[in-house]
Amino acid sequence: xxxxxxxxxxxxxxxxxxxxxxxxxxxxxxxxxxxxxxxxxxxxxxxxxxxxxxxxxxxxxxxxxxxxxxxxxxxxxxxxxxxxxxxxxxxxxxxxxxxxxxxxxxxxxxxxxxxxxxxxxxxxxxxxxxxxxxxxxxxxxxxxxxxxxxxxxxxxxxxxxxxxxxxxxxxxxxxxxxxxxxxxxxxxxxxxxxxxxxxxxxxxxxxxxxxxxxxxxxxxxxxxxxxxxxxxxxxxxxxxxxxxxxxxxxxxxxxxxxxxxxxxxxxxxxxxxxxxxxxxxxxxxxxxxxxxxxxxxxxxxxxxxxxxxxxxxxxxxxxxxxxxxxxxxxxxxxxxxxxxxxxxxxxxxxxxxxxxxxxxxxxxxxxxxxxxxxxxxxxxxxxxxxxxxxxxxxxxxxxxxxxxxxxx
Length: 408
Description:
Layout (H helix, E strand, L loop, with lengths): L15 E6 L13 H4 L3 H8 L2 E6 L9 H8 L11 H8 L8 E14 L2 E6 L7 H14 L2 E2 L2 E7 L4 E7 L31 H20 L8 E8 L7 H5 L3 E4 L3 H9 L3 E2 L7 H11 L5 E6 L1 H8 L2 H19 L5 E5 L16 E6 L13 H4 L5 E4 L3 H8 L9
Parallel strand pairs: 1-11, 1-12, 2-14, 9-10, 9-11
Antiparallel strand pairs: 2-13, 3-4, 3-7, 3-8, 5-6, 6-7, 12-13
Helix pairs in contact: 4-8, 9-11, 10-11
């Protein structure tokens, strides 16, 4: 069905918890075993035996998803029908307001050397400068560049080399305005790319962006490392129904990284604030907010980070850390608990991949007694089979007894 709202039982209270171990799916890395198979996970092993299991496909067969499509699928939106730029997600994750007059862009501080007047990229991330250095630079740029040709310039620091740029126009923009190439060449020893629009409206935005790049280049030319900026993910605000409009659930996001907070805000979720970046800190936030919401999205990043580094030992340790803390989560007694990833990030590939992702659903209404471990191969045996990720939300609602019968 396009929209399940008509089937949702409005008066039925239930607590649904979705835990996303980012990039958890993998391929064999040692002795023919994946990190999930190598990890010692007694709590997950006990839980999975009493749960429904399967594998989900984030976008489609053979398609490698970005984090945006991967999470939108888990939230019940068909990612094949929705395209959202990275700039919007970065801006929302940093808490910026996005209007219909805005183009949001994700920026990287970078290091260039000059051959005559031509900048040549020698480090696309400026040596991953500190977040404190980032803030100093953003304050300096913001003080000098407030508007360009009547377009307001809004900047916000992110983590390390990343920042968010909003170009606020004096009129409403259409979806055509985001059709602009990234300026990051994705290579070293070459010049940055020039932003070019695919249509008249986008070309107007691209011209403003190029003027911004040039003015920042002049301002930062004497900086030792962060002496240039690269822009990625030009995007306008998409027109999406909210999570509540779709599923009648008051929802909360518990995440550390701005990208995932941005994804949650995009669909209308509230975002928890808390100190620290550990799994324990996230669990404490979950406990504190437990009575206020119906649906909780809890995101754990490091499984993906270690996968992209090719560090399977690190990935195993994060999985084991999560397993050791799982009893604290189970003490909350969610009506439905789902544990999965947004995509696979095999250590042998050091990148996202198209491989199906293991998923566990625990509720009183599971067949269970099939999978003995929460691993790729064991979940393949489960009652859920292999299904598109955007079908997970109907399954969670059904396991929470939140859906009425369809038809007579």
